[in-house]
Amino acid sequence: MDVLKVLGSDVRPFRERKPPWLKVPAPGGARYRELKGRIEDDGLHTVCQEAACPNIGECWERGTATFMILGDTCTRRCGFCNVNTGKPTFHDPLEPARVARQVARMGLRHAVITSVDRDDLPDYGAGAFVGVIRQIRRQAPSCKVEVLTPDFRGAEMPLAKVIAERPDVFNHNVEVVPRLYPVARRGSTFERSCRVLRNAKEMGGEEVLTKSGLMVGLGETHDEMVETFGLLRAQGVQIITVGQYLRPTERHLPVVRYWHPDEFKALEEAGMALGFDHVAAGPLVRSSYHADEHVPRPAGGTVGPPYDLARTARGGRPRSGVGPLAAPAG
Fold first, then answer.
1. Do the beta carbons of residue 172 and residue 149 sit within 8 Å?
2. What are the DSSP calls for 194-223, one per residue?
3. What is the pLDDT of residues 26-46, one digit of tens each?
4. pTM reported for the whole predicted model
5. How far apart (Å, rounded) are the C-alpha atoms in residues 68 and 47?
6. Cα(295)–Cα(314) distance, integer angstroms
């Protein structure tokens, strides 16, 4: 498919000066360096690193992180994603215990668990999510658990296995408006993702919050975004996130335009008007950004280091050259 026929010919060049609201200092705090070393020593993967997330320093300092399980090679090739594509390597059966151990050692208050797509596995990787949830409950019982899963190719049994563990949040990103699926999410369909979200809510009921995320910058309009919000709300989705797509390499989809912070504010207001419990929209918002704020916590129930709520993604600035929305799970 000719990408420019869908996105239009007026796209941004890969090497150009980004708007001022898209620049932040590179991470480098003492806690960031400590956690980076621990994760590398354990041979674990985080989306924060794999997708070059601009918020990595802030999130790690505040006690939240997103772990990517089932390896670092995806069986699909989404046009926006910076994660490796190919034939996955052997899956480590001890990975759930190692992830949970790292969550406990890091003193996390909120852990997000995601994965590459594993269409090569009989259960599409659902068993690994189950294992990680169980291990975190044992090794770090104060930590909230959010799962950001693939679509499991629409199969209900793998999804049911994950929901049966009652994660605090079930997240599945639709990523883009339906019109852009043929170029942005090859191998997936918007309808299938909606079905996953609807089934997750029906299975989890009030015990599991449901969440999805989108990005802008690929030629979608405000009206298209609001219409997509409505479709997600109809599936029972309670939380949505919206952020700016940033092209990771010249091989990935080009950016059509950079949305202004005021436009994100308008999306946030439109989402809240549709009845979502929480809408996070901003240039630097990523699926897991400030994810801990979306989940009610018991009074006085905090773990991990102190954190600063003053910084938000609405007017923040990432360093140049960062990747797209951190969401390998398709």
1. yes
2. HHHHHHHHHHHGGGSEEEEEEEE-SS--HH
3. 776 777 777 777 777 777 777
4. 0.83
5. 6
6. 20
